[in-house]
Amino acid sequence: SGSSDPYCVVKVDNEVVARTATVWKSLDPFWGEEYTLRLSHGFRSLTVYVLDEDTIGQDDVIGKVSLSRQQISAEPRGVDSWLSLVPVDPDKEVQGEIHLELQVPEQGHPRVLRCHLIEARDLAPRDLSGTSDPFARVSCCGHTLETAVIKKTRFPHWDEVLEFELAEGEPGEAVLSVEVWDWDIVGKNDFLGWVEFPLDTICTDPTKGWFQLLPFPSTTEEHGGQLGALRLVVRLVEDRVLPPPYYQPLIQLLTEPILCPGQPPAGTALAVLEEVTSGESRQDVATKLVKIFLGQGLAVPLLDYLIARELARTTDPNTLFRSNSLASKSVEQFMKVVGLPYLHDVLKPVVNRIFEEKKYVELDPGKMELSRSRRISFKGSLSEARVRESSLELLKGYLGDIVDAIVGSVEKCPLIMRVAFKQLRRRVEERFPSAQHEEVRYFSISGFLFLRFFAPAILTPKLFSLREQHADTRTGRTLLLLAK
Questions:
Q1: Residue 97 in 3-state DSSP?
Q2: How far apart are CA 360 and CA 380, in angstroms?
Q3: Where does 246-298 have alpha helices with state H?
Q4: How many CA atoms lie within 13 A of 464 on its CB side?
Q5: What share of the chain is helix, strand, coil (3-state, %, to 5)?
Q6: Dihedral (CA of 90, 99, 136, 218) sign
Q7: For residue range 209-264, what is the model confidence (pLDDT) as tens digits?
Q8: How many CB atoms lie within 10 A of CB 373?
Q9: Which of 55, 101, 259, 295 is spaced 20 to 30 Å from 309 by Cα?
Q10: Which residues fall within 8 angstroms of residue 193, CB to CB, at 6 or more apart?
Q11: Is the pTM of this model over 0.70?
């Protein structure tokens, strides 16, 4: 058909940890899915496989992208780029571990790095006999040494020590690389996996143990490889969670302007945090603040405090809450945290019906498809006016049901959301009391409730857990027109 039904599978150290939805009939899929993975401290690699879902038979593997822990850690702000897909050959997938002992003795001049290659286990079979002929290749500071080849085994025992003379001075960013290969008498050797270590860590702390072999990492290239490319945003954050009493001083500092409102607002921790938070991190900060204050039972006072500060800075009511300020982001995250069950209750019946009916809806003449067989009557192709008329009727029907569901859901709306919006309305009335600004009090609420809550959920139901799969092209167009 000239298209695919792609989805992604995410693996960490060969363990499947996530699967995206399938995007039907597309060679340029957009997933927009975000996962927070709790990883062990010693994880080695993250691999994303792109597959084509087949209704009959086994799904086809299109390609993969691999990132080592070192690659991800090297970017403090995370990896955010197009990565070319590389082919996946089931016979060449890496597996197994290698047993190493690495150290730099403190005595002696010049200093020498000793790499003791003890053994490996569960290596991938590369020969027809179901075994391999493995040897190890070690590289450091521009020099390469190799072990002997151990024939016909997936569990080689080398017990060899390879030594590298280190140059004077700090190791800097130098690394020790250990690769395992299957030796072939004819043709090229087959890759079995690799692992690498920053030299500075070995110099300060001897390293010994079993280490998982990794595939060669993908290279960052421009969009346009033979198999296509995958855009990934990957960020590694190491959180050290302490016992609750350790966080109490921070919580007291953050909640102080709420619990003791008498102090100058500009000098509070919340005010300082608002000033120094950049656009990139504002959503993360807002999410954490909302969760902290919800835990303290102070979420509504937090929003009131941030809203009051933003109102004090606003002179034109038409620009109120239009920017992605800390106040706007905090209200948005607050609605997602406390209002998700309510959102499902209101929207899910209509969204499910739109997915099931798969009606053709289009208002743009330039995008109308008037000659499809399923829309041809006995009098010939449907006219542009007929398509537009039927589309308007469908959209009015869906939109009417959505509005009726929202209007009739007052009692279902979480009490804490209603209290927060009541306080928001009061603050707006105080800031803009004149009759000409009477509608601002309502626009300020509808801007949050519709533009930042209901409309995004209608546009992408998968991201709000309203559906398990993304919409196909036709349904996605209907949802887009409804959200607009």
A1: strand
A2: 18
A3: 248-259, 269-276, 282-295
A4: 28
A5: 40, 20, 40
A6: positive
A7: 999 888 776 654 443 457 889 999 998 888 778 898 998 999 999 988 888 877 66
A8: 6
A9: 295
A10: 94, 95, 96, 98, 123, 124, 179, 180, 213, 214, 215
A11: no
